[in-house]
């Protein structure tokens, strides 16, 4: 069964960004956040965990959060972090470098990536580690978004 994210989990990610990256607290529109958390369910995903379904759901979180700008600050970082968290919760990981991560986060938040582009981006970087294979490190977010970055 697919693990979905909750509003408290998204708030925890945003609070971590506030503490670590000096992101300003507060909402622009909390209603967007409530809608986005349920978006994968509203789009007909009822718990199937096949690879294409997980990719689509991860893209829905990323794309929706980046564009909705539910928070006053840090939406691009929240969106990419949420997508990666969703994938990790469901036993998937991305292999990428920090520059790719930053570029994709910014492109999506600047409306230069459509949902299908997000899916293709995830799909091309998604790997499932073999048993015993060391896991790739998750890129550090220290250099990803400067303080008070909001696009």
Automatic annotation (TrEMBL):
It comes from the Bacteria. Signal peptide: none annotated. One of its GO terms (molecular function) is kinase activity. Residues 5-124 form the Fido domain. Gene3D superfamilies: Fic/DOC protein, Fido domain. This is Fido domain-containing protein. The lineage of its organism: Bacteria, Bacillati, Bacillota, Bacilli, Bacillales.
């Amino acid at each position: 069964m697919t693990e979905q994210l909750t509003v408290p989990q998204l708030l925890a990610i945003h609070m971590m960004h506030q503490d670590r990256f000096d992101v300003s607290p507060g909402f622009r529109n909390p209603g967007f956040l409530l809608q986005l958390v349920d978006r994968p369910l509203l789009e007909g995903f009822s718990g199937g965990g096949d690879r294409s379904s997980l990719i689509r759901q991860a893209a829905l979180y990323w794309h929706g959060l980046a564009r909705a700008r539910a928070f006053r600050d840090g939406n691009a970082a929240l969106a990419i972090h949420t997508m990666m968290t969703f994938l990790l919760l469901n036993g998937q990981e991305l292999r990428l470098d920090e520059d790719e991560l930053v570029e994709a986060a910014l492109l999506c938040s600047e409306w230069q990536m459509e949902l299908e582009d997000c899916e293709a981006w995830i799909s091309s970087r998604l790997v499932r580690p073999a048993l015993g294979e060391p896991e790739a490190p998750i890129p550090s977010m220290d250099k990803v978004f400067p303080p008070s970055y909001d696009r």
